Known about the structure:
The chain is mainly alpha-helical. The protein has eight helices and no strands. The protein has one domain (7-205). Helix 5 runs antiparallel to helix 6 (137-175). The N and C termini lie far apart (36 Å).
Amino acid sequence: MKISRNWVWVLLFGSLWGMNELFTGELLSSRGVPHYSVILAAWAFFILAVARGVWNKPGSSTMIAAVATLFKLANTAPFICHLAGIFLLGVGFDIVASLLLKKENRITLRSVMTGILGAYAGYSLFAIIITYVIRYHIWVEGGLPKIVNHIFVGGSFAALAAAIVVPVGLLIGRQSTTLPARRPGWTYAGSILITAILWTLARFVV
């Protein structure tokens, strides 16, 4: 039963992330907002941190990222760059959170460093893999300067945002675990309902 409940959290948090990528991403992109991906990354790290506060297990952030990636893929035209960016951001955060947070139950410097290093890890993984493994033409043509700019410019903005939102998200996540303990039936039924609504609404967003 506990395993199924954890999957409910994964689906809910992944869908919340995916909806933001779909709706806010399209809105900011259409208006030409510079570095809008940093705004999307800030929300992603907040969601991942809340989820980690609820269920602090290695691999959980990667699973949430996979759901968010699937959400985006199912509701818009496939764009490998965006899909890889979403998934690898979650993988990078997962690696760092698994190393630094472990069974940490307090909001300490570790949570701030998790945000900062998680952002750099996610941005670095994406830039390297999209260029040298997937070999997406825009990144191959941009070469090392594009990689460096993505990691140290975009990544630094994202790290600054993550240093703030990750500790806050962890705190919210840890404090919210009392509700499922007191009202498990209502909590998980509500989570499933919200997830279903998000997937339904996504068909009308773009």
